[in-house]
Design goal:
Oligomer: single chain
Order of helices and strands: HEHEHEHEHEHHHEHEEHEHEHEHEHEHHH
Number of strands: 13
Shape: globular
Largest sheet: 7 strands, parallel
Helix content: 40-55%
Strand content: 5-15%
Strand order of the largest sheet: 3-2-1-4-5-6-7
Structural class: alpha/beta
Distance between the termini: 83 Å
């Protein structure tokens, strides 16, 4: 028998063996799927019995918000507390719960922090469920494949939350979309989401595709064709999973036109999606007087935003340095005030790095850092400032931008995202602020603002203040209640 005949014979025998194994493999797969389905059904039944037992004890439905960093001082936290306040005022016979990972404080301290930072007092207490494993969603835990790692971590954190308390309505208010299927299909809950910023966006895909260096696309990746191609495939696959997770939402609320475009392209649920602009405490800044600032001996540039990499404080510092270098002797003095919250050690390390950059550029005495300030101190800094500064590329909305405009500051924001599409828009045909998109254009805009006559600056400040009335707490509450009413109406009283 030739070698060719032997090979053919072996292939035939292998084919017969595989054919004989096919039926047992199919049966095994069916059994495994059946076991998995039964396991899921058992878990779902157990969770629903837990919810029924809670309902029997309490006699009313429960609405739960998933916000692991509810004690932070950012715009997302202000949305959370304003949303709960609006719902508590509207629905008196519903319990409200917040899932949080802030273990070092009590619930009363969290509520007191909301009062001090945002001037928000809830009409009734809320219950806090303290999660022990928030570290699972910390970006520092995943130096590589951060998006995937945090998303998987959020599922485990969501499971902890679900097993602690099964609500009737679950609302993700912090952007952990992969918890939504968990609560809907295992917990049997109605689910909603308020999206501040898509976990992944088409802009992020374009950055990788075009090999542009950004804070989330380091040079060693953008300079490599292979790594860029690999990351693009990774991002595309992640975007598909992200879209599948988000599409299970019963109600989707987004905070801006920019976010709406991305969520519609990814989650593909236009009938369930609406824009609900975040609440900006516009009225709290109206008592800051609008006066001519021509007699000021020192002009203050104030930046309001958490100390996160995407806020690009380095750009602010570098642009401010160039402005100082260009200023003539004898002109008004300038200072830069950076106001923001620090969520964790990583943010605090970032502040130390920024302080070091200021010292390196020789202007440590011209830049002030104000960390985790109270609302009262924020207003004081706002009242003394001339310019409000914002530098985040594709900011989803920009509460700090609105606050600066409400306080009567001349705003200089990034020419992208929410500031460009929704906020720094003409008011009755008149200018309400300035936009820039790189270091040099920021420098030019600052110089242009300072070169304006006091009367011209005052007119811009007046128009800016009037234009942001559409972002008030009252407008937010009305839009939120209208968007969420279909879900609230389904809750059994």
């Amino acid at each position: 028998m030739s070698a060719h005949d032997q090979l053919v014979l072996c292939l035939c025998e292998l084919t017969r063996l595989l054919w004989k194994l096919l039926l047992p493999l199919v049966i095994l797969c069916v059994l495994l799927v059946a076991v998995l389905v039964l396991l899921v059904l058992a878990v779902r039944l157990w969770l629903q019995s837990s919810r029924n037992a809670r309902r029997a004890r309490e006699g009313r439905p429960t609405v739960a918000f998933f916000h692991p960093y509810c004690n932070a001082g950012g715009g997302g936290e202000r949305v959370l507390w304003c949303a709960i306040r609006a719902l508590q005022n509207r629905y008196l016979d519903i319990n409200f719960v917040v899932y949080t990972g802030d273990l070092g404080v009590t619930g009363q301290q969290i509520l007191e922090g909301a009062r001090q930072r945002f001037n928000i007092v809830l009409p009734r207490p809320v219950r806090f469920v303290f999660l022990q494993h928030r570290v699972l969603v910390e970006p520092g835990l995943f130096p590589h494949f951060t998006l995937l790692g945090q998303s998987v971590g959020s599922v485990f954190l969501g499971w902890e939350a679900l097993t602690e308390l099964v609500p009737d309505l679950y609302i993700d208010s912090m952007g952990y979309a992969f918890t939504l299927p968990l609560f809907r299909y295992l917990g049997g809950c109605s689910v909603g989401s308020y999206v501040h910023y898509p976990t992944i966006s088409t802009d992020m895909l374009s950055v990788v595709r075009e090999r542009n260096p950004r804070f989330n696309n380091p040079d060693f990746i953008s300079n490599s064709l292979f790594l860029s191609a690999f990351k693009l495939v990774y991002y595309c696959l992640f975007a598909v999973l992200y879209g599948m997770a988000g599409s299970c939402c019963n109600v989707i609320m987004v905070n801006s036109s920019w976010t709406l475009d991305h969520i519609l392209s990814l989650w593909r649920s236009p009938n369930h999606t609406s824009v609900v602009y975040p609440p900006c405490d516009v009225s709290a800044f109206l008592d800051i007087p609008l006066e001519e600032d021509g007699t000021r001996k020192c002009h203050s540039i104030v930046s309001v935003g958490q100390f996160r990499p995407e806020k690009d404080h380095r750009l602010q510092i570098r642009a401010f340095k160039k402005v100082l270098d260009r200023r003539k002797k004898g002109s008004e003095a300038l200072k830069l005030v950076l106001i923001g919250g620090c969520r964790n050690q990583e943010d605090e390390d970032r502040v130390l790095m920024l302080r070091g950059l200021c010292q390196e550029l020789g202007m440590g005495d011209r830049v002030e850092f104000k960390l985790n300030v109270s609302f009262k101190e924020l207003k004081e800094e706002m009242s003394e400032a001339t310019i409000g500064l914002h530098t985040m590329w594709n900011e989803h909305f920009g509460i700090g931008v609105v606050e600066c405009m409400a306080a009567g500051k001349v705003i200089l924001a990034h020419k992208s995202g929410g500031p460009k599409l929704d906020i720094v828009r003409p008011f009755e045909g008149r200018q309400t602020g300035f936009l820039a998109d790189n270091e040099d254009s920021y420098v030019e805009a600052i110089e242009q603002i300072l070169a304006l006559s006091p009367d011209s600056r005052l007119q811009i400040r007046r128009d800016a203040r009037q234009s942001v009335a559409r972002f008030s707490d009252e407008e937010f509450e009305a839009c939120l209640l209208a968007a969420i009413e279909p879900l609230m109406g389904t809750l059994e009283r």
